[in-house]
Amino acid sequence: MQGDESLQILVGTEGDSFPLTEIHACETEASEQWDYVLVADSSTQRIPKQVYRQQQFLGELRRKGFHFKVKKDQKQVFFGIRADNSIFDLYRTLLVEPEGPAPRVEPETPSPIPATTRIRILNFVLSNTTADGETFENLVKDGVFEARFPLHKGEAELKKTWAQWRKMAHRQPIDQIRDYFGEKVALYFAWLGWYTYMLVPAALVGLGIFLSGFTLFESSQISREICAAHTIFLCPLGDHGRRFQRLSDTCTFAKLTHLFDNDGTVLFAIFMALWATVFLEIWKRQRARVVLHWDLYGWDEDQEEMALQLINCPDYKLRLHQHSYLRSSVILALSLFMICFMIGMAHGLVVYRVLAAALFSSSALPFLEEQVTTAVVVTGALVHYVTIVVMTKVNKFVALKLCDFEKPRTFSERESKFTVRFFILQFFAHFSSLIYIAFILGSCPNPPEAPKSWGFLDVHPADLSNSFPARRSLVVGSAASHLIQYGFTTIFVAAFPLAPLLALFSNLVEIRLDAIKMVRLQRRLVPRKAKDIGTWLQVLETIGVLAVIANGMVIAFTSEFIPRVVYKYRYGPCRQGAHPAVDCLTGYVNHSLSIFYTKDFQDPVGIEGSENVTECRYRDYRNAHDYNFSEQFWFLLAIRLAFVILFEHVALCIKLIAAWFVPDIPQSVKNKVLEEKYQRLWEKMWKGRPSWAGAGPGSYSRTSTRSTEV
């Protein structure tokens, strides 16, 4: 018993170490390392039925070749589990593949089984073992067991090289992460590290575009005209009260707007479309190199799953792929219902904005009457945040239920389907309100006192650049995860060029925070094998296409880029040619504001200052005599649509050219795979024959190298 005193098992989510002193059963030597731990409440040992169910499950594991040892403290009982080496020999035989990147050795001295493989196999068997028809999950629900988890062993090196804040600017030890957490986790952090690295040029360009806006802070012709417009009054619209406001009062806001909305926006949007493509294409090359280094290039996921099934149950019958049009129709209908529901919730947020504005305006509290806009924005943001938090939980539940209803063949297939459905639902939960604000709310303002629909509510006419920059804080604040952060960074980058910079800082912190949580604070994850990031690659490529479309629409419909260009060459002083002494945007502010006569107000007496104002201005292109859309409006609309089509085609063509120009797999990787295949075939062909019988693989390698260089 003396050797057992040193055995400790890590339990709990905080990584505390509890010494286990009392030994109830011993089937292996104490010096052996345990692969897994099952935990039960010590009170169950006083209930014969619970003890019997524990023994039944452990007996089933024993029959499958697993050893266990039982220890307990005052509150809990721990079952140390270790698999017999024959199980891993069978695993190696079934897959006929070397395990890990270690060099091949002679058959009589096989390479040791990595801890990640041991844990993965044991976890699979535990998940699929039944005793008297009861799975481990059933036993947990009935209180027979409390939990199961692999042990933290050998993590000291990762604590030094990865899970430290001072390593924030260092390269991640991907091979060490793979050896401890498995290929799936390692590939995720390899992708996250590459994504963070590629954010550096995007952040620098975005910062440059933002700083270039400072050159227009004082020198912009539009800002100068707004600041000097002391005699122009803005019409009281929407929730901005029943009073007139001088256009010059919005001087500071106009200057700040041009920090984001300037001529560099279009170039930056095209740059980010190219950046997204290059990022994904180079990541594919990085992945190919990593997978080749890990000797997983020819690894087959279906073969792995079938090998684990046969190890768990030699009588396993292959489960074939199935498809049901009825189930697919039900899933499609439910998915569309959820999407429509979330779009309706985005519309409901606007309804809340109107109702809250009316409520606060009529409130008996003087503070609310004076700060209506601030109160509406703050409470609206809070409602939006709560909505996202609630819908995230709902979306996860719905996505899981839809996956169970579809009955996927394997765990990996279920995980892939869940990823797609959960992302689609989350995409609409996070982006539907932003899309509504960016492209619908305020894009078609009504003239003052005209009947107002719920969909086209007026915005303040001082927002002469677009209706979206004033709400850009939602874009940054909602970026809570990366499969969503990447979407915010690319889809609305034309509206907020600093998004890549903020994403860069966020990732640098989150990588180390995740490392500290995984290594120091949480239970060890079950290692999973993988050779790519799976469905997420298609998700990222889809986001890249959506980013092109969204940025084109942001520039065309919510930015002032198109109206400014049209004014320069059709209506402004430079329509006949540029004049060095005249700014081409002179008179743009007056041109972009329509006239409304105060005598046409339904209640002019109730408007403060109406006795001294005969006409006011609002942002739109309408005729003064009948308030219908003017010729300029229809011409601008045609130019906007043409720009969207041209921008999307140019950006998508650039993406396609970049994807073609950068091969997915490096030629060195392809040649290495070919040489390994040739080496294996040559060894099988000439094994046991005289050395003079063949030229050997070396001559082919030299030939292939010369041909590659040419």
What would you say about this model in short?
This protein has 710 residues and is an alpha+beta fold.
Textual characterization of the structure:
It is a single chain. The chain has helices spanning about 50-65, 85-95, 115-130, 135-140, 155-160, 175-180, 185-210, 215-220, 220-225, 250-255, 265-295, 300-310, 325-360, 365-370, 370-405, 410-440, 475, 480-490, 500-520, 535-560, 560-570, 590, 630-660, 665-685, 695-710; strands spanning about 10, 15-20, 20-25, 35-40, 65-70, 75-85, 145-150, 235, 245, 595, 615-620. The protein is an alpha+beta fold and about 700 residues long. It folds into 3 domains: about 1-150, no CATH class; about 175-565 and about 645-660, no CATH class; about 675-710, no CATH class. It is elongated, with a radius of gyration of 33 Å.
Helix segment tally: 25
Overall helicity: 55-70%
CA gyration radius, whole angstroms: 33 Å
- Work out the strand percent: 5-15%
What general form does the structure show? elongated
Distance between the termini: 69 Å
Strand order of the largest sheet: 3-5-6-4-7
| Biggest pleated sheet | 5 strands, antiparallel
**Unreliable segments (pLDDT under 50, ≥5 consecutive)?**
1-31, 98-107, 450-480, 699-710
Coarse structural class: alpha+beta
Mean pLDDT: 77
- The beta-strand count equals 11
- Integer count of domains: 3
